[in-house]
User: Which sequence fits this backbone?
């Protein structure tokens, strides 16, 4: 057998974790290697990997994560094909049991674009934006694994107006998964002691529902109907070659937000709409880095739990082809996106499929963070509500 590093981005330099099942068998933890998945419970003889989520393993902490990664690399480097299962024979599941979910707003370019669109006469950024990473708590129960269909949400779109969202959008994001918890009342420790790994996120957004509801408390139903994540969690250790300094910040952040080390990441995302790449957002330029997000999330004493997920918010770059949402790519519908087949899009239509991928530099060539994909299904609520009223 051959090491898949380079050709596929899933070689021994990477080894992301996921949860898989074969037909008739219970879900269990595996590691991706090329186009196969290594059954860890069988390969390592450890029943923690027979669990249907990564949570029990992640809770063991950083020393166990490193020791396990070393054992897996040695096993695969020896060339044994035992306990390797082709990806074509498995079903992938949600890799973690998500405890809490926090979404941030950390891209200067994205926040500035949104400000210019909706407040053209004012400064694009609100006064607090450069002083802290702005975020909100999401709904962990609606986080789904890649491939799960996304039903178009219904809700209020204005005073007395109810119906399916007509401005359904994407948000290309990077997510961070907590392995080691922290105590209530005590800020989190070092980033690498708590964060197990990185995943790709599409935080679907109903812009019209959100625009009506968000004042004064922020996103609610316009965001909580579905958030998709990749089935693969890339361990932090696989991203050493991708670490970069975050952008210079002005004004200098408060002490608890000052960076002690480099936790910016040189990730290049790609957004595909119906198979066509429409954007390539660069993550390395994100104004607020993940260590700052973690520090801010816990500075008030909020505790971390194994399985917590926090996401970066939409990743956008400075160029038109680097925007991580359709609202930016179409400039709120005023400049519809032109596709290769002649169609145009301002926002998503039923049947559209969005796939987000990403690559990062590795020690021996690029690694791939996998993909997160979802297809839009028609709204259900209006039809169900009409049927219910008829039956009465």
Assistant:
């Amino acid at each position: 057998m051959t090491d898949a590093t380079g050709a596929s981005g899933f070689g021994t330099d990477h080894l992301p974790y996921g949860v898989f099942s074969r037909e008739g068998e219970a879900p269990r933890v595996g590691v991706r290697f090329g186009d196969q998945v290594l059954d860890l419970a069988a390969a390592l003889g450890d029943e923690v990997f027979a669990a249907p989520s990564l949570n029990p393993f992640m809770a063991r902490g950083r020393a166990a994560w490193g020791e396990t990664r070393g054992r897996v690399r040695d096993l695969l480097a020896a060339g044994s094909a035992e306990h390797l299962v082709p990806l074509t024979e498995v079903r992938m599941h949600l890799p973690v049991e998500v405890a809490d979910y926090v979404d941030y707003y950390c891209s200067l370019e994205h926040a500035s674009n949104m400000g210019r669109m909706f407040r053209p006469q004012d400064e694009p950024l609100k006064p607090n934006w450069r002083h802290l990473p702005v975020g909100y708590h999401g709904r962990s129960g609606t986080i789904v694994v890649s491939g799960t269909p996304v039903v178009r949400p219904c809700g209020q779109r204005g005073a007395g107006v109810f119906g399916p969202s007509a401005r359904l959008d994407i948000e290309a994001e990077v997510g961070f998964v907590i392995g080691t918890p922290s105590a209530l009342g005590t800020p989190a420790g070092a980033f690498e002691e708590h964060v197990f790994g990185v995943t790709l996120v599409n935080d679907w957004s109903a812009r019209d529902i959100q625009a009506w509801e968000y004042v004064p408390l922020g996103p609610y139903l316009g965001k909580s109907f579905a958030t998709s994540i990749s089935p693969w969690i890339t361990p932090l250790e696989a991203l050493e070659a991708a670490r970069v300094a975050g952008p210079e910040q002005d004004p200098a952040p408060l002490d608890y937000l000052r960076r002690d080390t480099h936790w910016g990441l040189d990730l290049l995302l790609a957004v595909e709409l119906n198979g066509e790449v429409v954007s390539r957002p660069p993550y390395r330029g994100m104004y607020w880095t993940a260590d700052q997000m973690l520090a801010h999330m816990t500075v008030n004493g909020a505790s971390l739990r194994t399985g917590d997920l926090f996401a970066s918010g939409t990743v956008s770059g400075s160029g038109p082809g680097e925007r991580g949402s359709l609202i930016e790519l179409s400039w709120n519908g005023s400049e519809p996106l032109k596709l290769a087949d002649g169609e145009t899009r301002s926002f998503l239509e039923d049947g559209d499929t969005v796939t987000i991928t990403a690559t990062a530099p590795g020690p021996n060539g690029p690694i791939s963070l996998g993909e997160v994909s979802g297809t839009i299904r028609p709204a259900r609520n209006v039809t169900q509500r009409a049927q219910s009223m008829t039956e009465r």
